[in-house]
């Protein structure tokens, strides 16, 4: 029985196959060997070429160079009969030089009795762009993103999440599975705000690090507590001073009426001596409560510390080594010099007492810029501050002691070894000077006290600018600095021309004063380099010899008096 021609359904008769190929959403490309046989309109749209242009090229010509060799090798192997993956991603290079990513599906068909490759490619460029943007957002997000299973297996985590949760313990995993929003402490000093939800794979938690905010809140609460204690201490000291005035006055009048030989005279003197000690205590309470009268003036914290240097070794004893490090950029503050000395001495004594077996005490000054959030946490306006740091290698403190060290009469010393007013006095003086004090300490790791005081500029009219002083002789450098600072100039010191050049490269100075004869680079070479950097830089050369000093440079011969130096400085600044 012979089989007749196969019947074709009516819908199959209606299909226009060439039209379907041309309007397909995927790019269709047929090649044999290295020659392109057919491309549809979508392929032309993706590559930017006209059909005639594409058919004159090989398929590899439109493949991006990064993929070209691999795609060529696969295409030839596939035509030779090799079994290879039928789908993979590659990149095409358009006529305009743009990179377009596609997912290519390949199959072997027969054309004129020979194998050819039919490629169906979907443009995934936009999808790749969205995925890349998502990955960048995911990786760079300040919020931790953590996806995990119920048994604690981490499926996905961005760098912030890995920083906050380097290890997902069973206990933490259970806590993070609670749906909703809540705060959680991950470790000492590390707090996160959590938004957690269940997802198909398990759970997803968003972790926002609120540790800085919690720290600022804690500092604010501490400042409010100390403010309240200060008001109480100041009020008590004020009333107690009134009582002491009465006791002391009557005691002195009674002593004046009693003969020296009287047996009761000794008792009255004991009363007066005890009243004097009580007056000292009230002065310290007033300092803590910021009720005492200060006499602020512009002064250099560096100079104040230098002046105290000779007093500190006897105070510290032979077992404590003092190391000073003073900032080179000046340290002008507005403060009562007597009270600021008291701050330094109290902090130094506290550090000494924390090292009963001796150690190293580091005393340093520096500059610090407080941005808005950090300044608010200290109760200060944002801006530039001078920082005094006192660091010891002592026994350290735990969190409970750190929270109370500035309270009046709080002490960790044995009975009779301290009043508990030393650090309270420091706190009061610093706060009354519009500054702040912070402490960093852990048990067995010593303590670091940092005092912040607002930095002030040199007085207007006397040179509201910084002077860079380059001089290798320590004695000359010190006396010139003191001469300038007495007139309100802020002086930055350099020990040689190389250091001076480095400092001048960081910022601009209103005036540079330099010696001529120095080891290494001399002052004239320095002046030449400074003028090359800043042609209008004001310079003053000081030396015992005028020869070789160019007339274009202002010159002052050594030795000179303060009046001659300041007169020459004003002359240079006004020129």
Any overview of this molecule?
- By secondary structure, the protein is α+β, with helices and mostly antiparallel strands.
- The protein is built from 20 helices and 22 strands.
- Strands 2-1-5-4-3 form a five-stranded antiparallel sheet.
- Strand 18, helix 17 (474-485) and strand 19 form a beta-alpha-beta unit.
- Helix 9 runs parallel beside helix 14, helix 13 (337-353) packs antiparallel against helix 16 and helix 18 packs parallel to helix 19 (523-533).
- The longest helix has 47 residues, at 211-257.
- The protein is elongated.
- The termini are far apart.
- 27% of the residues are buried.
List keywords for this structure.
disordered N terminus, five-stranded antiparallel beta sheet, alpha+beta, 575 residues
Tally of separate helices: 20
Kindly state the percentage of residues in helix: 40-55%
Radius of gyration from the CA trace?
Answer: 40 Å
Beta-strand content bin = 25-35%
Main β-sheet: number of strands, strand sense, barrel status?
A: 5 strands, antiparallel
Q: Could you give the order of strands across the largest sheet?
A: 2-1-5-4-3
Number of strands: 22
Which structural class best describes the helix and strand composition? Answer: alpha+beta
């Amino acid at each position: 029985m012979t089989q007749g021609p196969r019947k074709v359904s009516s819908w199959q008769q209606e299909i226009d196959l060439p039209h379907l190929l041309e309007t397909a959403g995927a790019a269709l490309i047929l090649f044999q060997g290295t020659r392109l046989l057919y491309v549809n309109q979508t392929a032309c749209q993706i590559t930017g070429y006209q059909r005639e242009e594409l058919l004159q090229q090989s398929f590899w010509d439109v493949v991006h160079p990064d993929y070209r060799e691999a795609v060529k090798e696969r295409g030839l192997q596939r035509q030779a009969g090799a079994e290879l993956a039928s789908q993979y991603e590659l990149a095409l290079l358009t006529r305009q030089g743009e990179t377009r990513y596609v997912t290519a599906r390949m199959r072997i068909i027969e054309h004129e009795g020979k194998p050819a490759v039919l490629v169906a490619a979907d443009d995934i460029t936009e999808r790749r762009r969205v995925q890349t943007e998502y990955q960048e957002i995911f990786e760079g997000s300040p919020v931790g993103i953590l996806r995990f299973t119920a048994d604690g297996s981490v499926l996905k985590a961005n760098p912030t999440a890995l920083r906050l949760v380097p290890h997902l313990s069973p206990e933490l995993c259970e806590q993070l599975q609670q749906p909703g929003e809540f705060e959680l402490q991950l470790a000492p000093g590390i707090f996160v705000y959590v938004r957690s939800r269940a997802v198909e794979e398990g759970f997803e938690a968003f972790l926002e690090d609120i540790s800085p905010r919690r720290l600022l809140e804690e500092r604010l609460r501490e400042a409010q507590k100390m403010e309240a204690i200060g008001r109480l201490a100041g009020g008590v000291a004020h009333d107690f001073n009134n009582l002491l005035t009465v006791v002391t006055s009557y005691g002195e009048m009674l002593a004046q009426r009693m003969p020296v030989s009287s047996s009761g005279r000794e008792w009255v003197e004991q009363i007066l001596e005890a009243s004097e000690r009580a007056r000292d205590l009230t002065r310290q309470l007033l300092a803590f409560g910021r009720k005492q009268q200060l006499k602020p003036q512009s002064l250099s914290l560096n100079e104040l510390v230098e002046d105290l240097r000779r007093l500190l070794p006897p105070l510290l004893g032979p077992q404590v080594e003092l190391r000073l490090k003073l900032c080179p950029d000046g340290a002008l503050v507005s403060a009562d010099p007597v009270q600021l000395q008291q701050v330094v001495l109290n902090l130094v004594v506290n550090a000494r007492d924390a090292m009963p077996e001796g150690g190293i005490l580091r005393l340093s000054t520096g500059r610090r810029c407080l941005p808005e959030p950090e300044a608010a946490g200290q109760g200060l306006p944002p801006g530039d501050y001078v920082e005094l740091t006192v660091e010891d290698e002592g026994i350290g403190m735990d969190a409970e002691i750190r929270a109370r060290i500035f309270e009046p009469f709080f002490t960790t010393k044995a009975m009779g070894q301290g009043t508990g007013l030393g650090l309270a006095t420091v706190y009061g003086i610093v706060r009354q000077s519009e500054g702040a004090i912070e402490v960093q300490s852990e048990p067995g790791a010593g303590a670091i006290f940092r005092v912040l005081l607002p930095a002030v500029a040199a007085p207007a009219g006397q040179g509201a600018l910084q002077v860079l002083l380059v001089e290798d002789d320590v004695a000359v450098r010190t006396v010139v600095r003191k001469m300038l600072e007495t007139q309100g100039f802020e002086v930055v010191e350099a020990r040689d021309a190389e250091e001076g050049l480095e400092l001048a490269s960081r910022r601009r100075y209103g005036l540079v004063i330099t010696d001529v004869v120095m080891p290494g680079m001399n002052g004239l070479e320095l002046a030449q380099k400074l003028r090359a950097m800043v042609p209008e830089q004001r310079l003053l050369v000081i030396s015992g010899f005028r020869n070789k000093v160019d007339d274009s440079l202002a010159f002052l011969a050594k030795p000179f008096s303060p009046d001659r130096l300041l007169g020459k400085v004003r002359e240079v600044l006004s020129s």
